[in-house]
Amino acid sequence: xxxxxxxxxxxxxxxxxxxxxxxxxxxxxxxxxxxxxxxxxxxxxxxxxxxxxxxxxxxxxxxxxxxxxxxxxxxxxxxxxxxxxxxxxxxxxxxxxxxxxxxxxxx
Length: 107
Prior knowledge:
Layout: E1 2-5, E2 18-26, H1 31-43, E3 48-59, H2 61-76, E4 80-84, H3 88-97, E5 105-106
Parallel strand pairs: 2-3, 3-4, 4-5
Antiparallel strand pairs: 1-2
Helix pairs in contact: 1-2
């Protein structure tokens, strides 16, 4: 699992979303590191944090738990978390678990 932050250096512009691009597998082996990295992103985020899932090749229950946990933390900080570009398997996983209703999607 790789996290690539596309937020600008320095102070983030609150009118622009912070976008984090994920790639690889989100599973029991990578979930803890992903959680730490996303919590760090929240500290430097604007009012909208977008997680790009277009390069995620696998996600297990631990990965879903990370997304839900980060959404809760974001909400408590006044930040909206949204997902974008999930692959078909990820869209299906979000739908089957009902998380597609709780985790907003953006184009």
